[in-house]
């Protein structure tokens, strides 16, 4: 593989770069070239602004560094001056302490020297001599010191005070100690204390306490040129200002301005005091420096003008590019729209010559644009049989007699086929407002015409179906007496007005009731706020005397074709069904009576035996009374007792006969509030006769405080008697021993599916129900008895279900052995008010008993 050696850079390298730049520029698309050209002014503005900001920032940083360096030098100089002044005072106090320790100075001499120091040096406010016991021997204070800070000869240092603690520290260290007392809001300005120890032959002999005014120390120790140039302050270790006036912080708005830079400051601790006393200097902004110079503002103004001009140029260039692009896009869009629109467009000049057709027009007719443009009538797409009609239409079109809704014509394709089209004509106006011809739009309506014909035929078929219905159908808007639709049967019954519709609605009660709360009500029409078009009312059966018919009325809300809310009512003639139901109810009532008669016939011998007992007792009482009257051996009291017993037995026989008579006689169902214990006791008393015949014990339990139920007591007693009699017969068939021959009747409260009710259960000790019998237990005419009709349990279940109750049967087990059967039914505490007892036979299909 050949290797290429690098060529040396020739003198025409710049020309080569220019050529490459031009080649790259030419390789770009016109759109990208326009974009780069539009962005060039903006890039120049950004670069120019960046250069101005960088120059300003550099000058400002350099100026700040110079100021900071000058501040540091000046403050260190001031710190040296303060330090020297403190050291001089410390040296003078140490001389006094040495003279006192060597006993070379008396108290009067101490007072003189202290007064000389205090008066000569303003920062020194007080000089105090404290002995080794902590008592003040002598002191001298300046007149400017506060009264609370003046010390009195003879007083002792207070234990726990800062002065006493520093005194102890000085005694331990045996060297001078500075201390800065803490400042408070209400106390006078704190004084800087210097404790100088006195030693007598190595023993501590007290201290010489010098107290300095920090404010005077700052004022007289700091050079005046530093004070004039900076804001000098003395602060403690907690950043609290002890002397001097610091600069106020600048406002939030000023901090964001470019010339409002933060003031330079510098801090240095004051030795020999240490970090407890810090000297701080803040530079005054005496001038604006570079920012305040006229040159800066001139450059800034020129820069702003240059930037504004560049931005204006860039915006103008961008607007021109946008206008050019918008024009190109608009032209392309209009051309694409004309080519993609499904409506055919044709333009005619004032003489009727075709000047323009779009792609859709050519596609509809089959002729190309070249074949149509420039043609005069008759046009190639005109059918030959329609020449006269189309010439007349064209003449009207050119004269300006256009129809607003357009007109329909037949158009011939190039292949000879025809199609229906609708033409809309409008004047063609140019940009100067002059009419240059006529613009015609053509739409193929062959398919809409076909669909319209199909819809018309479908509507006709639908109307025929509705007219042939055996139900009345009517539609009327809410709040109006207009009848929107009525079929043939409605018109036969009620005529062509809304009276029948409103009568059906009002009598059937299918209008929505007024809601009880504002949330469920529409304030405009008082209707439910739920979706009415999807809500169907329940069926209602009404009787119309004027027609002599029973009608089943159904109602539904719907949105009519014009958007109005309407109500459709469908009324079906149910007169034959009602007659059949009434006939079935009568048959059921007769079946119930027959069932009761059969039951009493089966119980006849037991009833006769039951009646024979009170009748025999009456006969015996009467015979005994007659015998004792004839013999004259009877008293009035014995006679009264015998007559009362005779009357009781007669009443008992009458009650038995009346109860049997009420049970057997045919009577209309009467559902009313019935007492459960009374029904149970009467049914048990009648059934106990039959149970004693089969040697079966009857036990019954009724829960205390049972509420009343809405029921027909005779029908419920019939159910209980039938169930107890069936239980006794099952025990007899099972041939149970006497100890295991019992029927238990229990009545307890029970709640089913959240509804309170009463449960009746009859439990026997018979042989139970086989599986094949359980499956057909309630079918009509099914019985396990050879002489049975198979209607007992079917009627019992129908009676219970007509009371909105439920009935069921189940075997009782002791391990795998069947020990009996349990029949139970449940009645609600209150049945619906409109429920009637004549639906006993229709509550469920016929079922049978076992």
Structure write-up:
With 850 residues, the chain is α+β, with helices and mostly antiparallel strands. The chain is built from 22 helices and 26 strands. The strands form 6 sheets. It has a 5-stranded antiparallel beta sheet with strand order 2-1-5-4-3, with helices on both faces. β1 (124-131) and β2 form a beta hairpin. α2 (30-101) runs antiparallel to α9 and α19 (676-693) runs parallel beside α20. The model is unreliable at 1-11, 253-261, 510-536 and 832-850 (pLDDT under 50).
Question: Which helices and strands occur, and which strands form pairs?
Answer:
Layout: H1 13-27, H2 30-101, H3 107-120, E1 124-131, E2 136-141, H4 162-173, E3 177-179, E4 191-200, E5 203-213, H5 214-221, H6 224-229, E6 230-235, E7 241-243, H7 252-255, E8 265-270, E9 274-283, H8 289-292, H9 294-340, E10 344-349, E11 354-357, H10 359-365, H11 369-372, H12 387-398, E12 407-412, E13 418-429, E14 435-444, H13 446-468, E15 471-477, E16 485-486, H14 488-494, H15 499-508, E17 540-544, E18 549-559, E19 565-573, H16 575-602, H17 604-631, H18 636-664, E20 672-674, H19 676-693, E21 697-702, E22 709-711, H20 713-734, E23 742-752, E24 755-764, H21 771-775, H22 792-802, E25 806-814, E26 817-828
Parallel strand pairs: 21-23
Antiparallel strand pairs: 1-2, 1-5, 3-4, 4-5, 6-7, 6-9, 8-9, 10-11, 10-14, 12-13, 13-14, 15-16, 15-19, 17-18, 18-19, 20-22, 23-24, 24-26, 25-26
Helix pairs in contact: 2-9, 17-18, 19-20, 20-22
């Amino acid at each position: 593989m050949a290797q290429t050696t690098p060529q040396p850079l020739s003198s025409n390298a710049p020309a080569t770069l220019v050529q490459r730049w031009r080649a790259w520029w030419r390789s770009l698309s016109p759109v990208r070239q326009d974009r780069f050209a539009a962005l060039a002014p903006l890039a120049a503005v950004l670069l120019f602004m960046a250069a101005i900001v960088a120059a300003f920032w550099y000058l400002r940083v350099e100026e700040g560094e110079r100021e900071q360096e000058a501040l540091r030098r000046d403050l260190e100089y001031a710190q040296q001056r303060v330090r020297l002044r403190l050291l001089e005072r410390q040296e003078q106090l140490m001389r006094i302490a040495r003279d006192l320790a060597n006993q070379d100075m008396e108290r009067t001499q101490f007072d003189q020297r202290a007064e000389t120091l205090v008066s000569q040096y303003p920062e020194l406010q007080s000089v105090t001599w404290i002995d080794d016991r902590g008592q003040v021997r002598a002191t001298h204070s300046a007149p400017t010191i506060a009264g609370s800070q003046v010390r009195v000869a003879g007083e002792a240092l207070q234990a726990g005070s800062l002065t006493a603690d520093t005194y102890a520290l000085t005694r331990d260290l045996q060297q001078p100690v500075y201390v800065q007392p803490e400042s408070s809001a209400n106390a006078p300005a704190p004084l800087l204390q210097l404790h100088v120890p006195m030693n007598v032959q190595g023993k501590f002999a007290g201290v010489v306490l010098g107290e300095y005014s920090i404010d005077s120390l700052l004022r007289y120790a700091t050079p005046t040129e530093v004070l004039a140039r900076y804001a000098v302050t003395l602060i403690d270790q907690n950043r609290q200002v002890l002397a001097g006036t610091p600069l106020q912080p600048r406002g939030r708005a000023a901090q964001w301005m470019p010339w409002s830079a933060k003031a330079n400051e510098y801090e240095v601790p004051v030795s020999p005091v240490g970090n407890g006393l810090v000297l701080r200097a803040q530079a005054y902004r005496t001038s604006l420096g570079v920012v305040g110079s006229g040159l800066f503002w001139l450059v800034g103004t020129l820069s702003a003008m240059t930037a504004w001009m560049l931005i204006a140029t860039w915006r103008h260039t961008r607007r021109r590019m946008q206008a050019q692009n918008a024009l190109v896009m608009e032209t392309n869009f209009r051309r694409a729209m004309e080519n993609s629109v499904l409506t055919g467009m044709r333009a005619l000049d004032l003489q009727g010559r075709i000047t323009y057709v779009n792609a859709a027009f050519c596609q509809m007719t089959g002729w190309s644009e070249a074949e149509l443009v420039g043609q005069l009538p008759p046009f190639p797409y005109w059918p030959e049989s329609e020449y006269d009609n189309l010439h007349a239409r064209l003449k009207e079109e050119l004269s300006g007699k256009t129809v607003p809704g357009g007109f329909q014509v037949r158009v011939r394709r190039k292949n000879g086929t025809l199609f229906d089209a609708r033409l809309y004509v409008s004047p063609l106006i140019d940009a100067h407002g002059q009419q240059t011809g006529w613009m015609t739009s053509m739409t193929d309506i062959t398919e809409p015409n076909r669909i319209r014909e199909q819809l018309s035929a479908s509507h006709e078929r639908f109307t025929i179906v509705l007219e042939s219905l055996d139900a009345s159908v009517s539609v009327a808007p809410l709040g109006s007496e207009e009848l929107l639709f009525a079929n043939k049967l409605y018109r036969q019954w009620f005529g062509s007005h809304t009276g029948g519709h409103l009568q059906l609605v009002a009598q059937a009660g299918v209008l929505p009731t007024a809601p009880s709360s504002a949330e469920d009500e529409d304030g405009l029409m008082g209707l439910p706020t739920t979706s009415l078009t999807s809500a169907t009312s329940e069926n209602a059966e009404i009787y119309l005397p004027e027609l002599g018919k029973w009608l089943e009325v159904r109602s539904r809300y719907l949105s009519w074709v014009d958007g109005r809310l309407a109500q459709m009512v469908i009324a079906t003639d149910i007169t034959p069904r009602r007659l059949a139901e009434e006939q079935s109810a009568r048959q059921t009532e007769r079946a119930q009576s027959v069932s009761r008669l059969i039951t009493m016939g089966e119980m006849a011998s037991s009833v006769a035996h039951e009646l024979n007992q009170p009748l025999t007792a009456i006969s015996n009482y009467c015979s005994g009374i007659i015998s004792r009257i004839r013999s004259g051996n009877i008293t009035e009291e014995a006679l009264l007792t015998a007559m009362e017993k005779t009357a009781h037995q007669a009443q008992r026989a009458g009650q038995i006969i009346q109860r049997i008579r009420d049970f057997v006689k045919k009577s209309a169902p009467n559902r009313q509030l019935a007492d459960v214990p009374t029904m149970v006791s009467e049914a048990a008393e009648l059934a106990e006769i039959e149970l004693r015949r089969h040697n079966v014990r009857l036990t019954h339990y009724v829960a205390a405080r049972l509420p009343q139920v809405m029921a027909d007591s005779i029908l419920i007693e019939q159910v209980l008697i039938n169930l107890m009699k069936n239980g006794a017969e099952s025990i007899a068939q099972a041939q149970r021993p006497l100890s295991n021959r019992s029927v238990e009747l229990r009545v307890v409260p029970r709640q089913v599916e959240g509804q309170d009710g009463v449960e009746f259960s009859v439990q026997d000790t018979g042989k139970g129900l086989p599986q094949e019998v359980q499956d057909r237990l309630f079918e009509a005419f099914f019985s396990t008895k050879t002489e049975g009709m198979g209607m007992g349990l079917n009627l019992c279940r129908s009676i219970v279900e007509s009371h909105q109750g439920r009935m069921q049967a189940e075997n009782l087990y002791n391990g795998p052995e069947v020990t009996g059967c349990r029949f139970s039914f449940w009645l609600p505490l209150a049945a619906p008010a409109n429920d009637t007892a004549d639906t006993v036979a229709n509550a469920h299909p016929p079922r049978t008993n076992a």
